[in-house]
Amino acid sequence: MTDPAEVAALARAFAVHLEHLREYRGVHFVGEGPTPSAEGDVSGADVSGADELGAGESVVDDPGEGDRGVGVPGAGEPGAAAPGRAQPWGEAAEPGPSWGAEQGGAAAADDDGAGAAYREEAARARAQRAEAAQAEAARAQAEAARAQAAQAEAARAQAAQAEAARAEAARAQAARAEAPPAPNSAPNPATEAKAPARARAADWPAAKKLAYLRERNVGDCQRCPLARTRRNIVFGVGNPEADLMFIGEAPGGEEDRLGEPFVGPAGRRLDAWLDLLGLRRADVYIANVLKCRPPGNRDPQPMEIERCSPFLHAQIRAIEPKVIVALGRYAGCLLLQRDLKLYEMRRSVQQYREPKSGAEIPLMVTYHPSYVLRQDRRGHPGHRGGGPPPQSNRPAWINPEDEKVLADLERALALLRR
Ligand code: URA
């Protein structure tokens, strides 16, 4: 028994009982420790009495039947502690009808009075205990409710965290989808790992986009068998901010050796055209449909174009030229996504539609320099195909196909000036 209220109640009951014994039976009962006061003050320094009562707890817990069973035999048996002497709580355990009956009628009446007070106190103590138990139950209930609320709060926090993680993943995915240098449908682990950088790539200058494309997307490309026979990847050259972009077919021997487009015989013809138009290589951007040389300068194969052309589209997205010039049928057909004859494409200004953004760029399709060079070897077959007549101020090497190309290029420049 540790409840102070209960202890106090018992102390009070015990004090009353002792008083009765003293008064009516002449029993001198003085315990070793201080006798608990009638008020049952067990607080503070007066703990010894409380302790004593605590030790006899079982006696007062049920002062009815049990008391009689303990008290009556002990009182008369030899060797048993005299009532009220050695064990004060033993004395307190012996009030009741049987004790009073042995002592005579008057004493019994007195005992009845003491017993009544005792029972009253005990009843009060029980009520207090019940009250305390009720309060304890209420406290436990409140504690359980608090724990439940804390658990619910933790679950809410966890759900919010999971939601935030889902939103972040969706944002990163959207950013990856919008990143400009994504030339190939096959995922490149190196670029996938740099999603945040790609998300910002839309604001990069063209040179940075091209460098990223070259290093991180093209890399040491192995997407088609040309990787096995090439010496160098021929990515592109010129001004990343150019308004005019030239697109050829595929690198030849010189280009494969040097890693730069149009540096062989065909390239020299292209340079000559640019020169006649007052342009330098550094003013324009030059690239090819294929980045690797087909062995023996054979024609590009559809699979090679399919694997490689995403890089070209990405280059166009990065540079955003105002006008594109396709040199030859392969470049024209790829950029128009149609299988047409060169003369059909040459007839008018075409529109290149960028596959990802859908942006349209004016496109001039003209003869490839290699084709025009071959006309040289045929010995200037003369004016064919309805092109412009040779101009008197042209250099001597100009052939009629050159004239047609130059006319096409003039139209392209006119588009730029619009
Ligand atoms: N022919 C092309 O189409 N591109 C080159 O780079 C060289 C020759």
Structure description:
This protein is an alpha/beta fold. The protein folds into 2 domains: 4-145, no CATH class; 203-417, Uracil-DNA Glycosylase, subunit E (3-Layer(aba) Sandwich). The protein contains 18 helices and 6 strands. Helix 1 runs antiparallel to helix 7, helix 6 packs antiparallel against helix 7 and helix 10 (206-218) packs antiparallel against helix 14 (302-319). The radius of gyration is 54 Å and the shape is rod-shaped. Uracil (URA) binds at residues 248-252, 255, 261-262, 264, 266-267, 288, 370.
Annotation keywords:
2 domains; rod-shaped; Uracil-DNA Glycosylase, subunit E; 418 residues; binds uracil; six-stranded mixed sheet
SS strand fraction:
5-15%
CATH class of the largest domain, anyone?
Alpha Beta
CATH architecture descriptor text of the largest domain = 3-Layer(aba) Sandwich
| pLDDT < 50 runs, ≥5 residues | 25-109, 381-386
Bound molecules: uracil
Principal-axes geometry comes out as: rod-shaped
How many domains comprise the coordinates? 2
Run of helices and strands: HHHHHHHHHHHEEHHEHEHHEEHH
Number of E strands:
6
Q: Main sheet?
A: 6 strands, mixed
Classify the helix fraction into a percent range: 55-70%
> How many angstroms separate the termini?
104 Å
Radius of gyration: 54 Å
* CATH topology group of the largest domain: Uracil-DNA Glycosylase, subunit E
How many helices does DSSP assign? Answer: 18
Structure summarized in a few sentences:
The chain is α/β, with parallel strands linked by helices.
List the helices and strands and how they pair.
Layout: H1 4-25, H2 47-55, H3 57-61, H4 65-76, H5 88-92, H6 97-103, H7 105-178, H8 189-192, H9 195-200, H10 206-218, H11 226-229, E1 237-238, E2 244-248, H12 253-258, H13 265-276, E3 285-288, H14 302-319, E4 323-327, H15 329-336, H16 342-346, E5 350-353, E6 360-366, H17 369-377, H18 400-417
Parallel strand pairs: 2-3, 2-4, 4-6
Antiparallel strand pairs: 1-3, 5-6
Bound molecules: uracil.
